[in-house]
Amino acid sequence: LPSTKDFIGKLYNYQGCWYYPNTLQGVLNFQKGFKPQETDIIIASYPKSGTTWLKALTVALLERLKDISSSDALHPLQSDNPHGIVPFLEFGLYLKSSTPDLTKFSSPRLFSTHMPLHTLQIPFEDSPCKIVYVCRDVKDVLVSQWYFRCAYLQKELDKRLLESLFESLCNGVGYFGPFWEHVLSYWRGSLEYPKHVLFMRYEEMKSDPAVQVKRLAEFLGCPFTEEEEEEESGSVDKILELCSLRSLSSMEINKTGSKYDVHHSNYFRKGEVGDSKNHLTHEMENKINMIIEEKYKGSGFKY
Ligand code: A3P
Q: Across all residues in the chain, what is the average pLDDT?
């Protein structure tokens, strides 16, 4: 990556996807050692697409099924960051070993990944775990990545980094990219195995959160009951409020501490649709739109 390497670093391609060396080791460990269970739930995404939000919603949906009347323990989202509760497989659990200790996970085990679907090598026909994928407009993903990287590197916002990320994205060589291959792998998976792969869109979660959270609950096998729907201070609304960016980012646990060398607070920024307009030039937006249109052509997938 001649013109971008100073900013982006050295990436390696494996099975059509780009990784940093340590992540690649985690991918290999994962592929060697991971045995999915039927009740597993895997949250999947391209980085900066709304992973943290989807993790929080999934945790909150499952948590509501537990009988907590006899317990005065904190809600898990108040005692740990969403990435602590739902760890990444390839650069978390499997980073150093192909046989991590998973005994602390009770069923349903919650994991997450940024790997494209085909590299997970899940035999859906005989071991059907569930995968929820969140997709987001790539232009907002790009801007979100830029902010995140600058915060991670503890640098001022540097336009040159945005330009490098843009170039890298357009060349199809970003971390976990190409972006379009990533999206299409899960899109096709959701068509082929609709009971096992749910495809969600960040923009729809923003514009119609109640519908989307109910869709998620149905898919996970824990739909809202009529009683819940009729509750005065509705169960759906409570979950949406608990998992809102404002609520999560104001929790003490998310103001302190770090996970994967990233301060918890860096997972929360603006959470808006269309922020790319404030940072990308028209030329950049047009180029991305053209590439994406071309790459999605014939797939039936529209954004
Ligand atoms: P922005 O940088 O555009 O604000 P990920 O979790 O995949 O790393 O994605 C991070 C993006 O999701 C950031 O986008 C962040 O602000 C946004 N986000 C985090 N929590 C959110 C929430 N509860 N609701 C909506 N967006 C959220």
A: 92
CA of 18 to the centre of ligand 1 (A): 23
Instruction: State which of 45, 48, 86 you would mutate to test the pocket of ligand 1, scoring each by most atoms of that ligand within 8 A of its C-beta.
Output: 48
**Counts of helices then strands in the chain (DSSP H, E):** 16, 8
ipTM of the complex: 1.00
pTM for this entry: 0.95
CA-closest residue to ligand 1 atom 2: 144
pLDDT at 69 (0 to 100): 57
DSSP letter, residue 109: P
Q: How far is the CA of 83 from the centre of ligand 1 (A)?
A: 13
Q: What is the pLDDT of residue 68?
A: 60
192 vs 98: CA distance, rounded Å? 29
114 assigned to active site: yes
Catalytic residue among 75, 83, 114, 196: 114
| 41-45 vs 110-113, strand pairing mode | parallel
SS3 204: helix
**Residue 45 β-bridge partners:** 134
SS3 at position 130:
strand
Domains annotated on the chain, with CATH: 17-136+176-267 (3.40.50.300)
